[in-house]
């Protein structure tokens, strides 16, 4: 099996798991009888079905050629992973720590040194927090462990 097939299979499995999570989550959406006939479950459920069909196509399609996986493909997987991890940590770590993680790892993946990536993460976390709280007036969750 070529490396491009392996990437397709991994991506297919990941998309299939996300589609299953979205489908399961859509059944937890409650709605009143006064809403539209389809209700709020229709869109996430349709999205999950489309994602699942695309994932199954990635898992089942034959390979036309074997191509080496480029470093940019690994960078793309890293970006998706850091976005998911940052979003999952958001309720526990708060806005500033999650944004720090997201921005610093993204900078590092794009070639910054670890020191420069951490500076970018700190500055982005501060600037974005100030923009959202002071300019836009949006309350952001603090870090429950550290209290800020």
UniProtKB/TrEMBL annotation:
Pinpoint the DUF1468 domain residues: 10-141
A Pfam match: TctB
Q: Which domain of life is it from?
A: Bacteria
Which residue ranges run through the membrane? 7-29, 41-60, 72-93, 99-132
| Keyword vocabulary terms for this entry | Membrane, Transmembrane, Transmembrane helix
Name this polypeptide is given: Membrane protein
């Amino acid at each position: 099996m070529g490396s491009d097939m392996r990437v397709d299979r991994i991506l297919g499995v990941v998309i299939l798991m996300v589609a299953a999570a979205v489908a399961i989550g859509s059944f937890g959406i409650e709605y009143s009888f006064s809403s539209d006939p389809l209700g709020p479950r229709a869109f996430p459920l349709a999205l999950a079905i489309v994602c699942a069909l695309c994932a199954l196509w990635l898992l089942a399609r034959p390979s036309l050629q074997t191509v080496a996986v480029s470093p940019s493909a690994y960078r793309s997987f890293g970006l998706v992973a850091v976005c998911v991890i940052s979003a999952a940590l958001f309720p526990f770590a708060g806005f500033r720590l999650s944004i720090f993680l997201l921005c610093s790892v993204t900078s590092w993946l794009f070639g910054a040194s670890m020191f420069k990536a951490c500076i970018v993460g700190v500055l982005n976390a501060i600037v974005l927090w100030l923009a959202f709280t002071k300019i836009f007036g949006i309350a952001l969750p603090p870090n429950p462990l550290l209290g800020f």
